[in-house]
Amino acid sequence: MSYILFGGLFDPPHKGHMEIAAAALKEINPEVIYWIPSRFPPHRQQGILSGDKRFEILKRWLSSVERMQVSDIELKPEHSGYTVETVEIFKKEKADNDCYLLIGSDEAENFTLWKDWKKILDMVSLLVGRRREKINIPSEVNARVLDNKIVEISSTTLREKLANGENTEGELSPEVIKIIDENGFYRI
Questions:
Q1: Nearest to 105 by CA among 142, 68, 146, 139
Q2: Model confidence pTM above 0.85
Q3: How distant, in Å, are the alpha carbons of 38, 39, 156 from that of 45?
Q4: What is the pLDDT of residues 86-103, one digit of tens each?
Q5: Where exactly are the structural domains of the chain?
């Protein structure tokens, strides 16, 4: 059996994220994909929604999607926020299963800057979802690039559109739009 860890800010979760997850599901055929909303890392601009709210959006959105679950492991106060710790925890709990780590191509290009990146690669098989046609993954990073449909969506632009009341139908699923509207998320 195998499983995939798919971490990210998901602020908000959009169709580009789902395209990458769907490609991983099709190509790897894991038992489950764990969507893992992360804290805001120090090198990134703070988002709008708290981790708890992003977790709830993901949980509601994915509740009816087979083989996709949400984990709040990286939102817990005792978690360091580093991917290496997340992988270690999952590997300890699921020692007999194959573990994959799914990241976007933008993150793959900077993977050698991640804390303990070599240790991560010793524990997982790295999957890369394409966010654009040309990808420059460092040669020392052994990764499988997925054959996903490239969906050019910017979370920053989405947040701006939502704040201004603009249409996001082609970028967000109807379920996510409903959750955002019901709660007034991203509105100024």
A1: 146
A2: yes
A3: 13, 11, 10
A4: 999 999 999 889 999 999
A5: 2-152
Fill in the amino acid letter for 53.
K
- Asked if 169 contacts 177 with a C-beta cutoff of 8 angstroms, the reply is yes
Selection from 151, 129, 125 nearest residue 30 by Cα = 125
Matching CATH number, 2-152, of 3.90.1150.190, 3.40.1500.10, 2.60.40.2380, 3.40.50.620: 3.40.50.620
User: Measuring CA to CA, how many Å separate 26 from each of 63, 100, 106, 146?
Assistant: 19, 14, 22, 10
Per-residue pLDDT reduced to its tens digit, 110-157: 999 999 999 999 999 999 999 988 999 999 999 999 999 999 898 999
Instruction: Identify the helix (H) or strand (E) that includes residue 143.
Output: strand 143-145
Contacts of 72 (CB under 8 A, 6+ apart): 36, 37, 51, 52, 55
